[in-house]
Design a protein that fits this description.
- The chain is an alpha+beta fold.
- The chain has 26 helices and 17 strands.
- A hairpin with an 8-residue loop joins strand 11 and strand 12.
- Helix 13 crosses helix 15.
- The longest helix has 23 residues.
- It is elongated.
- About 40% of the residues are buried.
- The N terminus is likely disordered.
Length: about 850
């Protein structure tokens, strides 16, 4: 025993050294270290416990009070059938899953103090354990329900992360007994009395669990159908993930590594394979061990593709009918199981197979979603890909009747940010008669035929009012409207991916990979897209947009020519948006913020050590988990800025920013003032005199405009809150003011910061004798403006709100604002970024 203890200590010292390598970024060794630690803990537990495992097994059975659940009999029956004489196997397996869950809880308790690069691996290794043994899913669900009951009283910050793991385990599990489904459903119902976002997420999960109880396997089925575009007659919904990386942060080496990993994971997934996954998982989720999945897989592999597709359509129809049944849950579930039992017998009998004996549960692979990776070099690349996605979906449908008219709108170049209203009517001089149009007559026609009057074939177009009708389903219920402007930062309505009835036929998940610069580019592109849709709805009625953000920093790579422009932008390479999202959502911080330095390190390792692409699917697995379970948006306001330049011949330029605006006011040691008679030098101190006019933020929304002048050397406007407790939606303006004080040694210049909270601010240089500012937006060196003498910042108006307000003002001559539909429309443009929990 002493020798064994020394060996364990030696191995632990080795693990500690390996963990030090984890902090230096050697990710492959760190993952092996965690798996080695689990194996050591298993060995030690088995060695020290001995006979205690038998006692633990008896205590576990006695705690049930003689009444054993269905999940207990499923596990023990399978273990006795496959591990005869080893009743402690179930206890050891459950203890293994229990340790992984406790590791996740310890990670949540650490908050921001833990090692950042190791975060997210505990959840990943836990799900890998469930993939190795399908019975671990039952243990995991049971343990999570027990931990959630304990967290409901004392540790509420555990609830949403553990709920997310629970739902993902239920989706992936090949079979979950109904008693565990019922316990999870009842727990979600008890959370309905909690404040937001607990009650909203619990309500959505309860609806999902109720559908899963009626039709086991429905969540897995709809996920595969939508992510891989499996055509069916019941659920015609397709979801596509577009990943855009920042070329200034992500090198070609990292991009190629990500591209190879993404495509290697789905290289073997064909249409027939995905159909087989849905059939096998749906039947096994309903029948459990009464289905021999190995024999079923052999039969399906020998069937032609058209037969497999027919079985697939039948499975989807049975699931849909059970899911929308108005009967009680137990009644609908029994009918659903009976129908799938008949289908199972039909499939086996078609291959002249005798109905095989019951088998052990087997894991059915959950394929990763279809991800398209792009290097975002062109500004209109996002628009082009979305349009192409819609064209591919509706090219052969009824909506393609207007495709010719839509193509001209889809193919138009990206417009400028200056919004021009669409003309409601155009005077036409075309009678519609071919002869009046000046078109050449068709060849081979005689003069008689040419003299006849006939009209060209018309094309039915949608009315203008329909294209510009306000889509009330797209308006978040708690965003700022024209009539009532909320100051508090709020979380948004859910964009749940598993809605039983989808309001729109398709979903585009836009994933941004990079630092803050790519989010500033997204804000500008999002405004341009909204303006296109205001003039003519092309994507809004067909596509549901969801945005995701994965931060990546590369400290070795400095922005291009930043130091040559201004010193204020030299060292700011942080990811402020991800920092804020991690502070309000601990689960986002654990799973997504950990990828900040991990993605570049993985690319270096794959190149240095020659690892095969797809050998370590950690990045793809984490991103897949994020896009599937992250559906609580956090809304960020977009601010509009107008620049005026020293050259009066240059027109005013408008732009937008999402994160920050930085202005550097050049210090002039001496300026020469020219007159008609003489020239004299005027010595000046550091800084430039500016005039500031702003609206002070007030909870009462009263207009309080203030004005002052100051001599300053620079200013910074921050739109992202500095901490999670700051919930006011406003700009934090910091002005570096220079004050001169006279001492015995002479005049001394001191600097101090002036802090302002506002949403509307105007800064200008009154004295325009060669003095100007250099302005940078969203830390992007490509968005730098020089020779600026005036800055005017205000919240960016929603283009649809602006259009309807402008149209209403033409017919309303009074000073009353927000009439008609504008009272119910969001006034300001907000960019939603999805997280796991929203704002806690």
């Amino acid at each position: 025993m002493v020798t064994e203890g020394k060996n364990v200590d030696v191995i632990r010292i080795h693990i500690r050294d390996q963990y030090h390598n984890l902090e230096t970024g050697l990710l492959s060794q760190s993952i092996s270290c965690m798996l080695l630690f689990d194996s050591i803990e298993d060995t030690k537990q088995h060695f020290n416990n001995g006979v205690k495992s038998e006692e633990a097994s008896r205590r576990h059975c006695s705690s049930m009070g003689g009444k054993r659940s269905r999940s207990h009999w499923v596990i023990t029956g399978a273990l006795h059938k496959n591990q005869a004489g080893s009743p402690s196997v179930a206890v050891n397996a459950e203890a293994d899953v229990q340790r992984s869950v406790k590791a996740i809880i310890r990670e949540l308790d650490q908050g921001h103090s833990g090692v950042q690069c190791s975060r997210g691996m505990c959840r990943w290794t836990l799900h890998k354990k469930t993939e190795r043994d399908p019975y671990n899913n039952i243990f995991l669900v049971k343990i999570l329900i027990r931990e959630l009951e304990l967290a409901k009283e004392n540790n509420k910050h555990y609830i949403l992360p553990l709920l997310s793991i629970l739902m993902y385990a239920i989706i992936q599990a090949p079979y979950i007994p109904d008693d565990l489904h019922e316990k999870a459903y009842k727990f979600c119902k008890r959370l309905l009395s909690f404040p937001k976002p607990y009650c909203t997420i619990a309500h959505e999960y309860a609806a999902m669990l109720k559908a899963e109880r009626k039709a086991p396997g429905v969540l897995y089925q709809k996920l595969i159908i939508s992510e891989h575009g499996l055509k069916n007659n019941v659920f015609p919904h397709w979801e596509k993930t577009f990943a855009f990386v920042d070329p200034d942060v992500i090198s070609e080496e990292v991009y190629n590594s990500l591209y190879n990993e993404i495509h290697s994971m789905n290289s073997n997934e064909t249409f027939a394979v995905n159909l087989g996954h849905v059939i096998k998982h749906t039947i096994q989720a309903a029948l459990g061990e009464n289905c021999n999945i190995s024999r079923l897989n052999e039969v399906l592999q020998n069937e032609p593709c058209n037969v497999i597709e027919a079985y697939f359509q039948e499975v989807v129809a049975i699931t849909e009918q059970s899911c929308f049944s108005s009967e009680e849950v137990t009644t609908a579930q029994k009918k659903h199981i009976s129908k799938l039992q008949q289908l199972y017998q039909k499939i086996m009998s078609s291959a002249h197979e005798v109905l095989p004996p019951n088998g052990r549960l087997q894991n059915i692979l959950l394929p990763n979603p279809d991800i398209s990776l792009f290097m975002w070099k062109e500004d209109d690349l996002l628009w082009k890909e979305l349009v192409q996605f819609v064209k591919n979906q509706f090219g052969n449908s009824q909506d393609s009747a207007n495709s010719d008219s839509d193509n001209s709108e889809m193919s138009e170049p990206t417009d400028s940010l200056n919004f021009e209203p669409t003309r409601l009517s155009v005077l036409s001089t075309d009678s519609g008669i071919v002869r009046d149009c000046g078109d050449p007559p068709p060849a081979g026609e005689n003069e008689k035929t040419q003299s006849k009057l006939f009209r060209r074939d018309g094309m039915k177009k949608k009315s203008y009012d329909l294209d510009n009708t306000l889509l009330l389903s797209d308006i978040p219920d708690n965003t700022a409207t024209g009539a009532d402007t909320k100051l508090q930062r709020k979380f948004g309505c859910s964009t749940l991916l598993f809605n039983i009835k989808q309001q729109k036929p398709n979903t585009a998940r836009i994933m941004l990979i990079g630092n803050d610069c790519i989010l500033g580019k997204l804000a500008k592109t999002f405004l341009s897209l909204r303006k296109r849709e205001t003039r003519r709805c092309i994507l809004a009625t067909k596509l549901n947009l969801q945005f995701y953000y994965i931060p990546v920093t590369n400290e070795e790579q400095t922005p291009v020519s930043v130091s040559k422009v201004t010193s204020l932008l030299h060292n700011d390479l942080s990811c402020e948006v991800s920092r804020y999202l991690g502070s309000i959502d601990p689960w986002y911080n654990s799973n997504i913020n950990s990828l900040r330095n991990m993605i570049p390190e993985l690319a270096k390792m794959s190149t240095s050590y020659g690892q095969q692409s797809g050998a370590d699917p950690f990045i793809v697995d984490v991103t897949s988990y994020y896009v599937r379970m992250g559906y609580q948006p956090v809304f960020f306001p977009i601010y509009s800025v107008a620049f005026t330049f020293t050259d009066k011949t240059v027109e005013c330029v408008e732009d937008v920013f999402l994160i920050q605006l930085v202005a550097d006011l050049a210090e002039l040691k001496s300026a020469k003032e020219f007159t008609l008679t003489r020239k004299r030098a005027v010595s000046e101190g550091p800084g430039v005199q500016i005039a500031v006019e702003y609206k002070k933020i007030a909870l009462s929304n009263r207009k309080n405009t203030r004005w002052f002048t100051s001599r300053c050397t620079g200013l910074m406007m921050k739109a992202i809150p500095s901490n999670e407790t700051e919930d006011l939606v406003c700009l934090n303006v910091n002005i570096t003011e220079v004050t001169n004080k006279v001492h015995l040694s002479g005049k001394i210049s001191l600097t101090e910061n002036i802090k302002i909270k506002t949403s509307h601010v105007k800064i200008e240089i009154p004295d325009r004798c060669g003095k100007s500012m250099v302005v940078c937006l969203d830390k992007d060196p490509r968005r730098i403006y020089k020779d600026v003498v005036s800055i005017k910042v205000s919240p960016c108006l929603e283009p649809e709100y602006y259009f309807h307000e402008m149209r209403s003002s033409k017919f309303n001559h009074s000073e009353t604002k927000n009439i008609g539909l504008t009272k119910y429309m969001p006034k300001y443009l907000l960019l939603p970024i999805n997280t796991f929990a929203g704002i806690l």
